[in-house]
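1st attempt posting a full record on here, be nice pls
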Amino acid sequence: MFKPIIRNMFGALEKPVIYRRGIIIVFLMCFSYWFYLIFTSQMLIRYDASVYEELGRMIYSQGWIEYFKTGPNREPLYPLTIAVSMKIADIFATSYQLIQKTIQVMILFITQILLFKLLSRLEIKNVIKLAVVLYFGLSPAIVNSAFSLFSEIITYPFVLAIILMSLLSWQAVHRSSFRRIVALSLLTSLLFVLSAFAKGVFQYIFLFFLIPYFFVFINSIRIKNKGILLRSATYITLALLIFNSLIIPFKLLNKKFNDHFEFTNRYVAVLFGNAAKRVNPALSPRLVAAHLASIPGGGVCRWFFSEDECRYCEFYLADDHPELPSKKDISGDKRRAKILSLTIGKIGQKPMQYFLFMGIEALRMPFWESTQIGYVNYPSWLKRLFELSLFKNGLRTLTSLFTFLGLFYLIGLIFKHKKKLFDLSGDGNPRLIICFFTLLIIFSYTGLYAFFSIVTRYSLVIVSLYLTGIAYFINQKLLRSWKLI
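the predicted structure (as tokens):
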């Protein structure tokens, strides 16, 4: 009964005139909502948000020398946007938060455009494409990131641009001019540099990103394809040179001013704290069960376990462990080396137990949707909506379910077509290449964060990739199964 109606709707949106109207409606809906929240919401400056505000004010009022002298500090790109907001706010005698929210809304808009372009490359049906772009613009978790003072928002366009560049780069390595190889290597490495200046973990994701190109390089040697060998070698070499030529000087500045050859702070202490918690010999089967219950969120854990048990499963006390060496006794790079050595020693005590809990931690990442991230004061009606159990729990459950379905579908797709992906006789199926690099970024990001404690806002960096997987799964699997296309 409903199939003909839905099929007609799908068909109508494939018509250019109706489709263009649909695009305008989607973006107008999002802009209306964002514009309303710019003037009715308030950033709550607590915890990490207060650190970002302080860094932004430091850069604005005291300059970069002070930023490095007091470091190593958080990654510089997001505090720089706050400093710019403060500068503009002083010029126009207004609140810097108003400027910052406006900047972050523009980042959302740019991300929507890139997501729209990526879905078009995947040949997603127009109705699915519009629905996904609209959901991204209205998602409580994503919108929260645009109206709170946290750095995840700044990474959104870079992540999608990296995926789009990966498609062009992969095709260019197989058959293109060296001028194009140089340009794409430059652009891709610069995108990773910007991502790293927003989230330091992208220093290491960049290395994972290059691994497939190393496989192409090795395969080209095996089959004696000189053209692909030279193109892949050029792409990898240039990317590494450009990336490190911008990252290493930043670390050297930290070394000069604060005696730390580091990119950012805190990570070694958190790494050790989590290792100590995970290999704790006092961990009981009940605490393991509490960890499993906490995967969907702390609220689920608290239905079955005590507050103390659930807090142990979360990030609390990870960066302030009593076994950490005191900064008074040892500082600088020596302290970092000591903590890393202690961390390896901890993991070595019970490696299986450590990696079990690391795997449990990784499973938190797909539970990205939430109306309760906090740090934003919303209008009363929206706050009441976000607190409705049926709405908040239903939305989180549904989005997580589709996220897992999308991931499993992409994994199966790549496994099925892995030979075609690395076939050097052609430049590959564009959709397959996009799916492969989407999975690569998702898994490398998740795997690296699994060494630490994952909170909901960390997953927001890759939500656009989750939504890409969901869209492709619905387009390729569900719609065809239901014979709607």
